Amino acid sequence: MTDQVHKADPGLCSNPALEIQPIVAELRQLRDASLAARNRVQRPARLPSRRSLTSVVDGLSAALFPNRLGWRDLAYENVDYFVGHTLDSALRELVDQIHRELFFLSQDSGNEELRSKAVLIAQEFGKRLPQIRQFLESDIQAAYEGDPAARSPDEVLACYPGITAMIHHRLAHELYLLGVPLVARIIAEISHSVTGIDIHPGATIGRSFFIDHGTGVVIGETAVIGERVRLYQAVTLGAKRFPVDENGALIKGNARHPIVEDDVVIYAGATILGRITIGRGTVIGGNVWLTKSVPPESNVSQAKLRADDYTAGSGI
Amino acid sequence: MTDQVHKADPGLCSNPALEIQPIVAELRQLRDASLAARNRVQRPARLPSRRSLTSVVDGLSAALFPNRLGWRDLAYENVDYFVGHTLDSALRELVDQIHRELFFLSQDSGNEELRSKAVLIAQEFGKRLPQIRQFLESDIQAAYEGDPAARSPDEVLACYPGITAMIHHRLAHELYLLGVPLVARIIAEISHSVTGIDIHPGATIGRSFFIDHGTGVVIGETAVIGERVRLYQAVTLGAKRFPVDENGALIKGNARHPIVEDDVVIYAGATILGRITIGRGTVIGGNVWLTKSVPPESNVSQAKLRADDYTAGSGI
Amino acid sequence: MTDQVHKADPGLCSNPALEIQPIVAELRQLRDASLAARNRVQRPARLPSRRSLTSVVDGLSAALFPNRLGWRDLAYENVDYFVGHTLDSALRELVDQIHRELFFLSQDSGNEELRSKAVLIAQEFGKRLPQIRQFLESDIQAAYEGDPAARSPDEVLACYPGITAMIHHRLAHELYLLGVPLVARIIAEISHSVTGIDIHPGATIGRSFFIDHGTGVVIGETAVIGERVRLYQAVTLGAKRFPVDENGALIKGNARHPIVEDDVVIYAGATILGRITIGRGTVIGGNVWLTKSVPPESNVSQAKLRADDYTAGSGI
Amino acid sequence: MTDQVHKADPGLCSNPALEIQPIVAELRQLRDASLAARNRVQRPARLPSRRSLTSVVDGLSAALFPNRLGWRDLAYENVDYFVGHTLDSALRELVDQIHRELFFLSQDSGNEELRSKAVLIAQEFGKRLPQIRQFLESDIQAAYEGDPAARSPDEVLACYPGITAMIHHRLAHELYLLGVPLVARIIAEISHSVTGIDIHPGATIGRSFFIDHGTGVVIGETAVIGERVRLYQAVTLGAKRFPVDENGALIKGNARHPIVEDDVVIYAGATILGRITIGRGTVIGGNVWLTKSVPPESNVSQAKLRADDYTAGSGI
Amino acid sequence: MTDQVHKADPGLCSNPALEIQPIVAELRQLRDASLAARNRVQRPARLPSRRSLTSVVDGLSAALFPNRLGWRDLAYENVDYFVGHTLDSALRELVDQIHRELFFLSQDSGNEELRSKAVLIAQEFGKRLPQIRQFLESDIQAAYEGDPAARSPDEVLACYPGITAMIHHRLAHELYLLGVPLVARIIAEISHSVTGIDIHPGATIGRSFFIDHGTGVVIGETAVIGERVRLYQAVTLGAKRFPVDENGALIKGNARHPIVEDDVVIYAGATILGRITIGRGTVIGGNVWLTKSVPPESNVSQAKLRADDYTAGSGI
Amino acid sequence: MTDQVHKADPGLCSNPALEIQPIVAELRQLRDASLAARNRVQRPARLPSRRSLTSVVDGLSAALFPNRLGWRDLAYENVDYFVGHTLDSALRELVDQIHRELFFLSQDSGNEELRSKAVLIAQEFGKRLPQIRQFLESDIQAAYEGDPAARSPDEVLACYPGITAMIHHRLAHELYLLGVPLVARIIAEISHSVTGIDIHPGATIGRSFFIDHGTGVVIGETAVIGERVRLYQAVTLGAKRFPVDENGALIKGNARHPIVEDDVVIYAGATILGRITIGRGTVIGGNVWLTKSVPPESNVSQAKLRADDYTAGSGI
Known about the structure:
Six copies of one chain form a homohexamer. By secondary structure, chain A is of the alpha/beta class. Chain A is built from ten helices and 14 strands. In chain A, α2 packs antiparallel against α4 (79-105), α4 (79-105) packs across α5 (111-127) and α6 (129-146) runs antiparallel to α8 (161-177). Chain A is globular. The interface between D and F is large, with 71 and 72 residues.
C-alpha cells in the first residue's frame, strides 16, 4: 500500500505532549544542589570553551604555517597581512579564554585585575610563538627522516597526526607554564580527540620529537623527554600507583612520570611507569612493561614467545 | 617566468568531460541488486542520522549541564528557559530518529502506530534524565578524586574524554533498554569517534565509574560493571571466541562479557575476556591477559620481565 | 557585590596592546629561512586541502550509498540525479586536489599538462567506483556475519568504524595506485582521526575484510591481506626496524610489512612485524608478538599467565 | 587612562537580572486571548515559511537557468543531473509548504488527504515550468531590446530587478491559479522586498513584459496585461476606492484593476486606477493620473507646467 | 580549441602582485586624519551593529508571535520556554548594542555606569513588549479589514510589508523614547531596506495603523498619527525646507512634520509637508501635494487632467 | 481528535512520484535552443556572481572604514593587518569576477591574456580606493550637515541608505570606467535592492552628494552631477523617449540624461528627463516634471492646487 505512506509533515501536527516541565524542575533541583555543594550558587562555573579554543589553535596554526596550513592561498608579499590579522584575532580570543580560567579560579580579585593579567599572559605567550615554530620545524624534520613512507617535510606537516599533536602540545605547554593549566588541558584534549595521542600539557619535550601512528600514546604530566626521541603507537609514559597521604587522599604535584633521555626509541605498546630514567640512546622494544630505570644505550625487549606457543592451538 | 602562472579561473573553462553517466548507470545496477538482495526494493533503508543524533546529544548535554556545557552564558533566573527549550528541541528531534529506527525494522505496522510508540519512548527517556544526571555527577566526582592532575570537578566535566564517553553511554544505555538499539549504537559510535572509548550501549555500569585517558578501551554488550570501578586506557572487557550453532551461524544475545564487581581497578592494556567475574576490590595490573574469574580482593599482574631481557639487545 | 560585575562589553574597550608586529616579523624570518632551505622561495608549498578532501569523501560516500549515507531522503526514481550531481561535484573537487599534488611535486611541467593529467586520473578513478562499491558490500556482509551484536547490514554501514575506515581505504588505495599518494594519504589520515584505525593507502586488502572495534589498528604500506580476514582492535601489521644504507639513510620502498593470507583471524592487540607470511586459516591470539612466518591453519597464542601471578599482589 | 578600559569579558559576569518571567507571562495571556479570538486554541497557525519559500524559488530559478543562475559552474553533459537534483529538492520542499497552507485553511479534512492534494498541486506546477521558462525568455528579450544600456540578454538575466520580479511572479501566478494563494503571496512579497516591485500573484501578464528600474511599481490582483507591455518605475495599476456591502464590509474578489492591452507603454509614476481599459498601443506619460478608459493608440500626458512656475521661486 | 581551456586551478599560481601595501598606507593616513578631525584618535567609533540588531529584532518578533514567526513549530505547553529563551537572548544582545551607543556618545562616564544604564534601558524596554504586541494586533486587524485581498489576519502577519515595518517601528520607537536613538534608527533602516517603508523612529503612531503596498512611504521624526489611519504606497509625511539659524546651520529638534488625526486615509503618492494638521476623517487623494492644514472630514484631490491631454500625443 | 495528528516523519515515506524526468528533458530542449540562438552552445554564459560581488563590496567597505564597518573590533595598532588582509581577499575575488566578464565577452582572446588584463584592472582599481574614500567622506559630511535628524557623521555612515548607495556607486563607477560595466552594474543592482536607490554605474557624481530617504531615486547612465547636490526620495534623472535608427533599433550610448550643476537641490518625486541642464544653485520643488533646461539659481515648483480642490470631495 503506498497510499498509507503519504503522511503529514510533522510540523503540521499539534506536537506530542512530551511533558517537559517536570524534567526541567527536577534538573533545576539537582543543579541547585550541585551548585551548593561546589560553593558556586552565586557564581556558576563558566569555563573556557572548547569550541573557542579549537578556533584559537586553528588560527595560531595558520599563523605559524600560513602557506601550508592557512585557509587561503596567499601571495608572497601579502602573507604578513594574513599572519598579522590571524594572530590578532586568535590572541584576542585567547585573552577571553584565559580570562575565563582566571575568573573561574579567583576568589576575590577584581575583574579588571584579572583582565590585565590575561592580557599579560597572552602577550608573553605571543612572544614565544617564533620559538614554538622552530621546535615544530625540528619535529617535522625528525618525522621526515624517521619514516620511510614520508616523501617531503611538507607532506609530514599536512598529514601526520604526530605533528598535529605536537603543534597542540607545544602551544599548550607554554600556556601551562604561564599559569593557565585548564586552557592548556582543553587544548591537549582537542588534540587527543583528533589524534588519539594524549600528552598532558605539563610534559617537557625536547626538539626533534617524533610519534609515528600515535593512537593510544599517553604521556603524563611530569614526564621529561630529551631531544631526538622517537615513539610509536600505544606507548605509555605513565605513573605507577599514586601515593596517598594518611587520610587516603592523593598526593598531588610530585614528579611521578619517566625521564627519557636523548636519542631514545620506544616501540609500539611499550608501557613505562614511574619516575625512572631511560638512559640516552636506549631502545625499548614493543609491548615491553618497564618500571625500573635502564642505563644508556640499553636494548630492552619483551619476554620471548616460548617454543611451544606455535602448536598450543587452544585459541585465545 | 611569471607570465605562465597567471592562469585561468577554472570556472571559465568548459569543464573536463568526466564521463559520469556510465558510472551512474553502473552504480544504479549495483544499488538495485543490493536492494533486491536485502528485500528493500520498495523500501530503501532510511536510517537514523548520525548528524542528527550528534545534535540531540549536544542538546541533552547542554540541558543536563547548562552552565558548564550550554552554548551561552546564562543568567541564573533564566536557566530554566534555556533548559526547557533545549530539551524540547532535542527530544522532538529524538522522536524523529526513534521513529526512523522503528520504521526501518517494522514489517507492517501502521505509520501512526510507530509514531505514537516513538513518542512514548522519548517521554519515558525524558523522565530518566534526572537520574542520568545523578549518575554522571558521581562519575565526575570519581574522576576528580582519582586523578592527581584534576583541579576541580568542573575541569573534569570540561576536559575528560572519560566523562564525555559516559555522558554518551548513560544516554545510549537508556535508549537501548527502551528498545531502540540502533539509535543507541549510533550514539555510542559518536562517542567512540570522539574519545577512542568504545562502550557498547548494552553494557551495565554502576555509579562513580572512571576511565582515565581512555583511548582503546572496549566494553562489550553484556558486560556488567559495579560501583566505583576505575579503568585505564586500552582495557578490553570482551568476549572469547563466539559460539556457533550447528550451522556455523553465530549464536546471538547470550551473556558473553565479564562481570566486574564494585571497587575494582583495571590498569592500562589489560584484556579480560569471557563471562567471568572479577571479584570486589580486585586490582588487575597493566597488560594482563585474563580469561578466568578471580576472587574478591585479588591482585593480578603480568608475567615479570626476565632478568636477561635487559641485556639481550637484539631489538624488536 | 553584584554591582562590580556589570562590566563592559569588551568591544567597547580600546583593545589591549598585544604587540603583534615583532611576532609577525620574526615569523616571517623563520618562514623565509624555511622556504630557502626547502628550495621553495619562488613556490611556497600549496598542498591538497584536508577540508576539501573531507568533502570529496563525503560526496563519494553519498554517491556510493545514496539511500543510507546520502544527505537527504530520496525518491526512488530521482536517486540518479542525486548520484550524478554529487559525483560531478566530488570528482571536480578531486581534480583540483590532484592538480595540487601534481603541481607541488612537479619541477617544470607546464600547468596545462598537469591539469590534463589530473583530469585523466580522476576519470580513471571514477571508473573504478563501481568495483569499490562491490568490495565494500563484501566488507559490510563480513561485518554483519562476524559480529553477534549486528542486526542488519544497514546498521553495519551506519555505525561501524571498521566500515568507515574501509570506505576511506578503498578510495584512497585506488588514488595511491593512480599516482597521487599524498591525496591518498590525507584521506587515510581523515579516516585515522575519525576511527582510530590507521591503514596506509598502499596496503593491499582483499574482499570481505572486517575490523571490529578498531581503535589502535595499524596496517603498513606494503602489507598484503587476503580475503575474509578479520582483525580486532589494536592489531599492528608493521615493519621491523628499518634497514639503512651505508650513510645511515633509510632505504625506502621495499616490502617490509606482513602478508596475511585468506581466512586469517587476528585478535586484539596482536603485533605482527616484518615481511613474514601468516598462512591461510591461521588464528593469532590476543596480544601475541610475532616476527616470524607461521604455516597455514596455525593457532598462535600468548605466553600463559603463570600460576603464582594470582597471588603476587605487588601491584603494577 | 587606558587601564580603566581593560574590562571584563561580559560572559564572566553574573548576568543582569532582566526580569523576563513577567514578560513571558503577559505575552502568554495575550497569545491565549488571540488564539481564542481566532478560534485557534487547539490549532495555532503554522504558516508556510518565508525562509523555506525563498530557497524553493532559488532552487527553481537555478533549475530554469542552470548556467546563468545555478550555484556552480556546470559541465555541459552533466547539467541535467544538477537540474534534476535541484528540481527534486525544490519541489519536495514546495510540497511541504503547500501542505502547510492547505492544513492552515482546512476545517476537517484528513491530513493524508491534504498531503495527497499538495503532491498533486506540486506535480501540476512542475509540468508548467517549461512554459514558464519560455515566457521568461520573452521577458528577457523584451528587456534587452527595450533598454539602450543592456549589452546582452545574459546581462539582463543577471542584473535586472524587473526580471527577478517576473521570475517570482510567473512562478507565483501558477501557484495562485492552482489554489495556494498564500504560498503565492509569500513568494510575491519575497520579490517585493528584493526588487521594490509589488505584483499581486493574481495578476495576469502576457509575454514579453518589461519593467525598467521598477522601484515602487504596484500591480493589483485582478489586473490583466497583454503582450509586449513596458512599464517604468513607480507605476501603479491599482483599484479605486473599494466597494462595501450594506454592512460596510469590503466586497471581495471582483475585478477592480485595469486591463492593459498589447503594446502599451506606461512611463514612470503613472497611476492608473479601477477596472478601465488602456487600449492597444497607447502611451501613458509619466506621473499621469488616470481613472478612465482610453482608446487604442492614445497618447496621454500630464498637465503641463505653467509658464510662471519658473519664476515663482517660493520654494516648496 | 578545447585543450587550451583546461587551465590551472588559480590556487596553484603564484598570485598576482596586487601591490596592496601602498593602498594600505594611504588608507591609514586618511583614517588617521579622519579620526583627528572627529576627535576620536584615542577612541575610534565602535557603533551598534546592524547585523546584531537584525538578529535582535528577529528574536523579539519570534517572542512576540512565536507560533507564526518563531523558527520552529512549537508544542502548546512548551511555547513559554521558547519565548523565555528567545527573549533572554535577544534582550542580552540588545544590552550590548545599547551599551555601544551610550559609550559612543559618552564623554567621561565610567564604563560600569554605562553598562548599568544599558541594563536599565533594556529592562524598561522589555516591560513594554506586551503593549507593543497589543498595538501590533490592532495593526494586523486593520490590515485584514482594509484589504480585500487579505484572507486572514495570520496571512497579513506573514506577508504584508506594512506589518513588518510596524513591528520594527513599534520596537524602535520605544527605544527612541528610552534614549537610544541610534539603535532605534538602525532598526528603522533595517526595516526600510526590507520593506521600502521609511519611518523615522521618532514618529508617534496610534493603534490600528495600516500601510498598503508601502514602497516609498516616508514618515518624518516629529510626525504624529492618530488611530485607524490608512496610508498607501509612496506617501510622504515630510518637512518643508528646514529653518536655519543666523549662521546658516540647521535648527534641530523642532516639530516640523504633519499631525494626522484619527481615521484619515491618504492615497498613494500624496505628499504632505510641514507642521500642518490633517483633520479627523479626511481623505487625501493620490498624488496630492499639500502644505496647509485641512479641516476634519475634508476630501482633497489632485488637479484634474485637462480635457485636451488625451489628444496632445507629444510624448512624455 | 489528537490521535490523528501524530503523523509520520515525511522522511520515512516513499516519496511522492513527482515525475521530474520529463520536466528535465523539456528544460534541456529549451536550454539547448536558447544556447543555439545566442551562439553559446560551446560556451554557456558564466556570468560574474552577485553573491561573490556582494562579498567583494562588503570587504572593500570594511577596508575603507575598518573601525565603523569592519566585522570585528580592532586594536589601533593592528588595523593595518585587517585592512591589508581584507583588501587582499576582496581584490583577488574581484580579479576572478572581472575575469568572468572579460571571458564572457571575448571572442578569441587567450585565457591567460584575459587573466592578465583582469589583474591590471584590479590593480588600477585598487589604486583609486583612497580617492574613493575621500569622496565618500565628503558625502558623509554633506549628509550630516543636511539632515536635522543626524547627530554625528558616524551615525550617518552606519544608518543612511544614501551613503550605502554612494559606497556602492563610487566603487561601481570606477569599475565602469575601467571597462567592466557588467561587474559594475551587478554592484549597482546590489545597492538598488538594499536601498531602493537605482544609480547606473555610468553616472558621474561630484563630491558632497547627499540623497535623503532615497527610495525610488533613479539616476541614468549619462547623468552628470556637480558638487554639493542634494536629492530626496523618488527623484528621477532619466531619459526621454529613446531615439531609434531607421530600422527601429535603439541608438545606444549617446548622452541622454540631465546635467545637474553644483549646489542644486531637488525635492522628492521630481522627474527630470533628457539631456537638459539644471543651472547651478537651482531648487527643484517636489513632484515637478521637467524636460527643459533651467538657468542658474532658479526656483521651479509644481502647479499649485486650485482653490476648489479642497471642497470637491469626489474622492480619488
